[in-house]
C-alpha cells in the first residue's frame, strides 16, 4: 500500500504521496502542493529537499556509508582503477574486460587539445589560479566542438563529448599547472595510463624526464576514486541545473568546476593546508585556534571539519588518513603539518563544541597532505578534486537528461517592498 503524508494548511488537509528509495529513505512528493494549496515549501540551502530521484550514488551520512552504483567506496578504493569507476558511474555497471579496453582506447584517442587553445594559456597572468583557467578552458571546448551545442544530440555525439571531457581535463589541468610555474607544457603520452599520463604532463621537464613512482600513481588512483561522486552536492547540483536549461555538456561541467572552487566545497583542500601552515608558522597552542573556530564573532572556521550530510564520520576521510600515512612512509617524507593535523583532529574531537555539532574531519582534511607529499602545489589541490569528480558530474548530467528532467527553477517567498509609485529623482 502506498504511503501518504498529510499537510494541514489553515484547517485544510492535503494528501501527498510518499516516495520510498531503494534503501528505504522516505521523501514527501510535493510536486502537486502548489497547485492544490497555493503554498510552496521553503528550505534554505536545500537541507531537507531532494532535488531528484537518482540511481548513481548512495550516501548515508548518519552511518558513514558511501556507495557508487551499489559498490562501497572502501571496496572500490582498494580494488578498482579510476577509469573503471568512471565507467561504472557513467554507465551504471562495472565494465567487462573488453568494455574497459574500448573505453580506455576511446579516451586515449582524445587526450590532445587543439593547438589554438594552447595560445589561451599565454594570455593568463603567470600566477593565475589553475581553477580559473580550467573552468574557462572547459567552457571553451564547446566553441571548438560547436556540434555539442545542439540540445538534440544523438547518443553517439554525447558519448564523444564524454570521451573528450575525460581525455582532455588532465591535459588542460596539467597545462594550467605549467602556466602557474612558468614551465613549457608537456604533451600527453598515450602509452601511459590515465594517472601516469597526468603525472607525466605535470612533472616532466625538457631537461629531466619524470620517473613515475608506482606509489604516487597508486595514491593518485585512490584519491581520484574517493572524489568521483558525492550525490547532489553543490557542484553536482550546479551541473544538473545548468544542464537542465540544455546548455551544452562542456559548459555545464565548467559551471560545476566553478561551484567546486569555493572554500566551503572543494576549495577546502587548499584552505586546509593554508590553515595548517599558518598554525605551524604561528606556533601558538592549538587550543587558541580551536577557540577562534568556536568564536561566532571570528570568521575563522576549522577547515576540513564538518559536512552537510556526514554527521558521524566521512568514510572517505578514514581511507585518506590511512593512505596519507602510507604515502608519507613509503616516500620517506616527514611533514610537520601531518603532526599538527593529527593533534588538531584529537583536540577538536574531544571538544564539546565539535562533539555537539557532529563536526568530524572530512575528505579535505587529509587529502591536501597527500597531494603535498606527491609534489602537487597547493593551488592545484582543487583541480585534483575536479579531475576526480568529473565522471560523477557526467553521470549526474546524463541521468538528468535521460530522465527528461524539467528546467531547474526554484520558487521563493518574496519579502521585499509592496507595490509603490516611482518617485522622480529631484523629489527623493
Ligand atoms: N568550524 C567551526 N564551526 C563549524 C564548522 C567548522 N569547520 N563547520 C560547522 N560549524 C558550526 C557552525 O558554525 C554551526 O554552528 P551553530 O549551530 O552554533 O550556528 C554548526 O556547526 C552547523 O554548521 P553549518 O554551517 O550550519 O553546517 P552546514 O551543513 O551548512 O555546512 C560545511 C557544512 C561543510 C559548509 C561546514 O561544516 C564548513 O564550513 N566546514 C569547513 C569547510 C570544509 O571543510 N568544507 C569541505 C566540505 S567536504 C568536501 C565537499 O564534499 O565539498
Structure notes:
The chain is mainly alpha-helical and 428 residues long. It has a domain at 4-60: Rubrerythrin, domain 2, CATH 2.20.28. The chain has 18 helices and 6 strands. The strands form 2 sheets. A 3-stranded antiparallel beta sheet has the order 1-2-3. Strands 4-5-6 form a 3-stranded antiparallel beta sheet. Strand 5 (65-68) and strand 6 (71-72) form a beta hairpin. The longest helix has 27 residues, at 155-181. The protein is globular, with a radius of gyration of 23 Å. The protein binds carboxymethyl coenzyme *A. Residues 45, 230, 233, 264-266, 268, 293, 301-308, 357, 359, 362-364 line the site of carboxymethyl coenzyme *A.
User: Hetero groups bound?
Assistant: carboxymethyl coenzyme *A
Taking all Cα atoms into account, the compactness measure Rg is: 23 Å
What's the CATH class label of the domain at 4-60? Mainly Beta
Strand order of the largest sheet: 1-2-3
Task: Give me the CATH architecture of the domain at 4-60, please.
Answer: Single Sheet
Shape: globular
CATH fold-level label of the domain at 4-60? Rubrerythrin, domain 2
Write down how many β-strands occur, each being a DSSP E stretch of 2 or more residues: 6
Number of helices: 18
In sequence order, what are the helices and strands, one letter per element? EEEHEEEHHHHHHHHHHHHHHHHH
Estimated share of beta-strand residues: 5-15%
Mean pLDDT: 94
Main pleated-sheet profile: 3 strands, antiparallel
Q: What separation lies between the terminal Cα atoms? A: 64 Å
User: What would you call the structural class?
Assistant: mainly alpha
